[in-house]
């Protein structure tokens, strides 16, 4: 296998969709949309599936920057996000680098007696809980003192850039003693119960491992299934009402998931949720060795249809098991590209992670997942963005993160600010030029074309929030002409409203654009930083103004560049 062509986090199945979507400069544009929002048609609670994040670098959870970012997300929710960090059981010094961290919990003395050290766990989980969030406990991976004998067979070429065989992947071997693993899991659960209390930990999700269908698991599927039985029963033995689940497979792990569910059914194992992942692209080659900042050898893009196809396929696998159809699906890595720590210096196609493309993609994706929920028996409860931040980056490195150097917010964070303002109830809304998830059967590997679509929410006080976007999966597509979206709002109960209008596009809510306009400085002046930070939050496109509804209806017209998303909020004036 040529390892330079392998991306972690994505399965080997390319039969349905290619690993990334090509660009098509001749693709047609959408220039007009008719949108109808019925404020009087309540479709039930607006499932806040986006309220979840995760990341590899366990030890960055409790840095000052990590704590501040968790606090920012705490301002965007009333219930808290579920936060899923990797590597809690890995051994190490507490030092994190991109795609590596460690909780350093398990140790054995010279006589083989086990001991537990929760120092680093406390720092990480304290930071999550103190910010108002809840832990999605990923119980992984194998501590160094629990490695089996065959872990010594892992071939590692000594190098100053490699610590040892353990960090290079020995942590992925099954534990040598499942009884000791169960004791570790039980001790971890008990410590969390005693430290955070039953009321808090019953909101947590307890998940075994990560992507065991690929190289994150160096055992057999059957060995993993048995480890789940041990793990789930260990957690429940300490916290009887704990929510346990798995197996967190990749989007290609269909047969692994099916085998896992057969096992849990046959063994009557506790299971409260089913988890899996999806990624929208894996660029090839993953790293380009050439002049710094050079172009991509081929223009490649994420594919929202690939992600939706994989999610739908997994939902239908779960639905094959009648007793599991009511379990929630947790898509606890749900990302446009993979892996998180690759940047524009690895492959220029990762530039989308800096720009306005990404937040609009994320809003679009969340709405389409809600549409899948409307059609499928099994429901997505969380769609986790595997994104946090990276220490030691250059400005706008292009990694999948909410912050760049200096703690400056990237446009992606504004997608979550916009979604947070929609309200608690989903309102009926539709666009005449939206991509319909029913068309996935006819996608034939193609990415999602340009569309204008809408997601609307309301509050008991009569406030109406409307997200309207224009987007295409092709990050290289641009249009000099803005599209016109006419938003017909009906079902309003008042006459006078205050309209606020926020916008994410190249010119708004976009610190990256300011930085590039300043010449992309890697040593920005104090004045540069003030200008950049001034444009990093969610910005209003226009000042708030009064609008009048006649007969419970009013029309609004929005001009949308490509890509862009507008948030319209109507507040009744009493």
UniProtKB/TrEMBL annotation:
Naturally occurring in which organism (per UniProt): Georgenia alba
Keyword Hydrolase tagged: yes
Cross-referenced InterPro entries: GH, GH39_cat, Glycosyl_Hydrolase_39
Pfam families: Glyco_hydro_39
Domain of life: Bacteria
Region described as Disordered: spans on this chain: 1-29
Signal peptide from the UniProt entry: none
Record protein name field: Glycoside hydrolase
Residues covered by the Glycosyl hydrolases family 39 N-terminal catalytic domain: 104-551
GO molecular function per UniProt: hydrolase activity
Stored Gene3D superfamilies: Glycosidases, Glycosyl hydrolase domain, family 39
Family: Belongs to the glycosyl hydrolase 39 family.
Keywords on record: Glycosidase, Hydrolase
